[in-house]
Amino acid sequence: MKLNTLRLAVALTAALTALGAAPLAETAAVHTKPDATSPTIAFIKAGAEPVIATAVTAPAGWLAVTLAGPHEVYAANKDINKALDVRPGSPYRTEPKTDAPILALAQTGDTAEITGLHGKWTQLKLSKPVVGYILSTAATPIAGTIKTTTATVSVPSVTATDATVAAPAIVTPGKAAPMGDGGSSALPRLFQGKLASTYSAFHPRRPYDFQLNDDSGVRYAYLDVSKLLATEQITKYTDRTVIVYGTAKAVPGSKDMVIAVESLQLR
Prior knowledge:
Blueprint: H1 2-19, E1 28-31, E2 40-44, E3 51-52, E4 62-67, E5 71-76, E6 91-93, E7 102-105, E8 112-118, E9 121-126, E10 130-135, E11 153-154, E12 170-171, H2 180-183, E13 189-197, E14 210-213, E15 219-224, E16 241-250, E17 257-266
Parallel strand pairs: 12-13, 15-17
Antiparallel strand pairs: 1-2, 2-11, 3-4, 4-10, 5-9, 6-7, 8-9, 8-17, 13-14, 13-16, 14-15, 16-17
């Protein structure tokens, strides 16, 4: 009986690999390795069809699946070269921290667009498929039917920073930052606007190299980007709408406002 059960499991796995998996009977966690204790990098919802990675051999009880891009990933700034490419062999992580799961390793020719800066980390949109693993028991056919539609993959959202204030308000460009707690501006908040350089050959040097403009092109805050270690990448965002996370304060001796930027990403 055990031998027949094993043969049936092997036959089921082979059939799923050859034909494409049936819709999932239950939501399946996608792991980095064929090991239930390995990190979860995505979820495939019940009723969706996983795309089987036919070039990868998975051990008994597991299916190798392909997660189509794009993926939101993070690379350490030290792994970004002067051409703003991720060095081959460097890890793409799911969160901006050293112990976050590795989604894939960088390869020559990867298409990865920089979408944000987070202290020691660079946020990227990685446009290539990656392989994960699900338990084959989750791929039990629903009512014996097999469809041929593309699988829908739901990737959990990733926090932009290690310590994000819950539900901060986005400031409308041109308006003062909302001051909660009796008018205190000590808490970091989200600000939206168009990033601009303050450099001008016809004006004296500004107190900060970058500023945030409203839709009409008028500055409403300078940006202190000293906490963003990869400052050489900031020019990539010039004249583009961004969301800045940081603390606003007054510039001493003036009516101007400056935001101490903790993270920055495209709108």
